[in-house]
Write a structure and sequence with these properties.
There is one protein chain. The radius of gyration is 17 Å and the shape is globular. With 245 residues, it is mainly alpha-helical. The protein has one domain (3-244). The model has no long low-confidence stretch (mean pLDDT 85). It is 80% helix and 0% strand.
């Protein structure tokens, strides 16, 4: 890896986990579209997975008393099936097509967030846990981007903000553990990955700290607009990268 690639890697990690520190999710949606310009998708996604474990464990432990266990029990079975499907696809399908799919997914989530009105978020039934868990598991394993899918479901199930944040943090942590097993089984976890993860860890923690500080200082509308701009640029970049392979 060249010096410029190394700079891009560490900058992407810092930026992505600053976003995570501000919002509680979204690190992969920011980092992966950047990282695929310097790393293979099948390396970038497991790398973000290792960082997610570090980022979510502290949040999940601090807020564990607010976790709604009933929602975890509903989501986990279909989530595990989705993770196995996604990990199998990631290890077998040509990365160019997957990058295009990643870019389209990120742009779709950005457009949804831009046009969505708060009043439109009506409560939904628990039956939606099956497609939400399945889709979240697939996108988590393929791109590390299951967070928005879980958010769409839990935001309409848990009106209490503390319960919502705690439950989604616990869910992302459990998803990361499940993906670790699936990636190990499909041969995606190899020694160079852990060496790179150790180099990235300080920058992940730096980003988390900066994001936590910014969350108290940056107005939510400004943070939302900045995030949407980052996601849109990353989505377009992933599509361009996929078309060039």
């Amino acid at each position: 890896m060249s010096a410029s690639d190394h700079f891009i890697l560490l900058s992407a990690m810092t930026l992505a986990y600053a976003v995570f520190g501000m919002t509680g999710f979204g690190a992969a949606m920011v980092a992966v579209p950047i990282l695929v310009h310097i790393l293979p998708l099948e390396f970038a996604v497991p790398l973000i997975l290792l960082m997610d474990i570090v980022a979510t464990v502290s949040v999940a432990l601090k807020s564990r008393r607010h976790v709604v266990l009933a929602e975890l029990r509903r989501l986990l079975p279909s989530l595990l099936v989705g993770v196995l499907l996604g990990a199998t696809i990631l290890s077998r399908i040509k990365s160019g097509w997957l990058l295009i799919a990643l870019g389209v997914f990120v742009l779709a989530m950005s457009a949804r967030s831009f046009f969505m009105r708060r009043a439109a978020a009506q409560p939904i039934g628990w039956q939606w846990s099956v497609p939400a868990g399945m889709a979240g598991g697939i996108f988590s394993a393929l791109f590390g981007t299951g967070g928005p899918v879980y958010t769409m479901y839990l935001a309409r199930r848990l009106p209490d903000l503390e319960a919502f944040r705690a439950t989604i943090a616990a869910l992302i942590f459990l998803s990361a553990i499940a993906r670790s097993g699936a990636f190990a089984a499909t041969g995606l976890l190899q020694e160079p990955l852990f060496t790179t993860a150790l180099r990235c860890l300080p920058f992940c923690l730096l980003g988390l700290f900066a994001g936590s500080m910014l969350r108290r200082r940056v107005p939510p509308p400004m943070a939302r607009n900045l995030l949407l701009a980052l996601l849109s640029a990353g989505g377009l970049g992933a599509i361009y990268r996929g078309l060039s392979l």
